[in-house]
Amino acid sequence: MSLTNLKDGLNTGIDSLDYEHRKLVGVMEAICDSFDRADSAPEVSDLFGKLYAEASAHFALEESLMREKKYRLYDAHKADHEQLLDQIRNMMEACEDGKCTDCGMNLRACLEAWFAGHVTEADSGLRGLAGPSG
Ligand SMILES: [Fe+2]
Ligand SMILES: [Fe+2]
What we know:
This protein is an all-alpha fold. The chain has helices at residues 3-9, 15-36, 41-68, 74-94, 107-121. The longest helix is centred in the middle third of the chain and has 28 residues, at 41-68. The chain is elongated. It binds fe (ii) ion (2 copies). The site of one fe (ii) ion has 6 residues, from helix 2 and helix 3. One fe (ii) ion binds at residues 17, 21, 58, 62, 119, 123.
């Protein structure tokens, strides 16, 4: 699955979350595009900073929604968010040479796996939380 496919393929059905997921994929695309150009190391590191900031804000939004709705898997979901943020820091170093020293995949595949795994396994459970019936 490409990053572009991820934008359309992962829908929780909650508009505000889906919008932010697409924005996060946009930052990931920018990281990969920048990485493919020569001498882009400072920009790549700035973009990883942006990904970290936007992902933090996004996770906070999901967590407030889950608290508001007394979501039963809140603790596990929040723990996963914390792990994802740690992984951004690791990914930046691990992918310095274009191939992740942790998973052996290239940067693009590594980013895709990072995001798609959480959205399909955890965020998909949020479907219906913001629905009209609450
Ligand atoms: Fe999410
Ligand atoms: Fe999440």
